[in-house]
Structures are given as structure tokens and as C-alpha cells.
């Protein structure tokens, strides 16, 4: 029997799984469970990359995945992230519950592949998931600037392809056209302009890479927990998490 890859968007645990028994344990009897199977890992990663399930998702065990967009970005696995030669690795995430609704952002900073600090804040009672993701990435860019000034090689990992493409692909064309696009309004324009200016100063020194959310990448999971804690605590200033950096305890917090 050919290998299948199971995507769970809504269940006891979300992510990409390689066997039906594990997938079933996360969705069986779970109210509103949403999942699909795919023939290849690349199809599963493409489908799961946006973090939200497509409107056509059902409790079916088979489906045909959409082809990835031509201007999509590569998704890095946990193994590839660990192997990357960078002194500082910054993970970002934004959450919103519901969307639109209460939003917050989180960041996890690793130095020499060891967790160094966690950050949270930017609570907005009337935010969106995209804005929260952009805010988190913006904070990472601010941190990255300080790290590069100290000659520290730095990579940023973000699970929002929208945020990455806004800054690294689309903004350059929007700027050339007077910050306009054919499809209409550029949402989050002021924030994107600020971030694009910052990115232009840093792009030769840093990388911004994509990682799937909720597939067990520790840094991403910790940033996620910080974004949800920001919502719960209504923390507006973006500030450092000062409790003990007990990874297991933090991962047990509410996930986004």
C-alpha cells in the first residue's frame, strides 16, 4: 500500500501525520474535525501551509490537493531548521480568536539552537490573524537588526506565507506602483511599508523562511503559545516572558 500523508486542520492535535491510526486518534469523535489524506508529503505541506482548512474539507480520507502557487515559498522541516548554520534563529507567530477578533503576537528566540527568550504582546481586541502575523514578523525584524549589528548570523522563521510574501515578494511591486495593486486595497499597508523599509536594510544579512505551523517545530509552537498568552493576558506592549522557560509546561498552554 502506498504511503499516505494525513492533514488535520481541526482535531485533538493538528498537523501532518503519516499513518491513519494516528490521524484517527486525533479526529475520531472530535466535534467538527476537519482532515484529508494526500498522496505525497509536498501536497500535504502545501495544503496545511495556510494553517486553515479549505471550505471543501470534509471528514473524507481522500482528496486531491491544490497545486502550489508558482510564486510560493519553500517550507522548511524541523530537521532542515536544526541543520541551518545560524547563530540566532527567531520564530514568529500571530493568533486571533476569533478571526477577526482578539489578536496577539509571539516570538521565540534561539541562540546556538538553544531557547534563549520568549516574547509576547501587541494585543488588539479588534485584530485579524494576518495583522497579528505581520506584527510578530515585524518584531523579529527589529530583533534581527540588533543581532546583525552584533555580527550574529540570523534567520527568521514564520508560518504565515502571506506575511513572508508581503515583505519579500509583493511589496517591491506595490511600491513601484505607488503602493497600489490591481486587486484593490492593500490591507495592513502602513505596517507593511514600515516592515518593507526595515527588510530592505536587512535582506542581504538575514533570511526569512517558512515553517508549517503545528507540526512539532518547537520554536514555532512556543511562539504560538506566546501569541495566545498575549490574547489571554491582553498584553499590549511587546515584552519578554519572564516565567521559567520550561518548554514542556509552556507547550501545555492553550494553542492557537
From TrEMBL:
<feature type="region of interest" description="Disordered">
    <location>
        <begin position="46"/>
        <end position="69"/>
    </location>
</feature>
<dbReference type="InterPro" id="IPR012337">
    <property type="entry name" value="RNaseH-like_sf"/>
</dbReference>
<keyword id="KW-0540">Nuclease</keyword>
<dbReference type="InterPro" id="IPR036397">
    <property type="entry name" value="RNaseH_sf"/>
</dbReference>
<dbReference type="InterPro" id="IPR037056">
    <property type="entry name" value="RNase_H1_N_sf"/>
</dbReference>
<keyword id="KW-0255">Endonuclease</keyword>
<dbReference type="InterPro" id="IPR011320">
    <property type="entry name" value="RNase_H1_N"/>
</dbReference>
<keyword id="KW-0460">Magnesium</keyword>
<feature type="domain" description="RNase H type-1">
    <location>
        <begin position="84"/>
        <end position="232"/>
    </location>
</feature>
<keyword id="KW-0378">Hydrolase</keyword>
<protein>
    <recommendedName>
        <fullName>ribonuclease H</fullName>
        <ecNumber>3.1.26.4</ecNumber>
    </recommendedName>
</protein>
<feature type="compositionally biased region" description="Low complexity">
    <location>
        <begin position="51"/>
        <end position="69"/>
    </location>
</feature>
<dbReference type="InterPro" id="IPR050092">
    <property type="entry name" value="RNase_H"/>
</dbReference>
<comment type="subunit">
    <text>Monomer.</text>
</comment>
<dbReference type="InterPro" id="IPR009027">
    <property type="entry name" value="Ribosomal_bL9/RNase_H1_N"/>
</dbReference>
<dbReference type="InterPro" id="IPR017067">
    <property type="entry name" value="RNase_H1_euk"/>
</dbReference>
<dbReference type="Pfam" id="PF00075">
    <property type="entry name" value="RNase_H"/>
</dbReference>
<keyword id="KW-0479">Metal-binding</keyword>
<dbReference type="Pfam" id="PF01693">
    <property type="entry name" value="Cauli_VI"/>
</dbReference>
<comment type="similarity">
    <text>Belongs to the RNase H family.</text>
</comment>
<dbReference type="InterPro" id="IPR002156">
    <property type="entry name" value="RNaseH_domain"/>
</dbReference>
<dbReference type="InterPro" id="IPR022892">
    <property type="entry name" value="RNaseHI"/>
</dbReference>
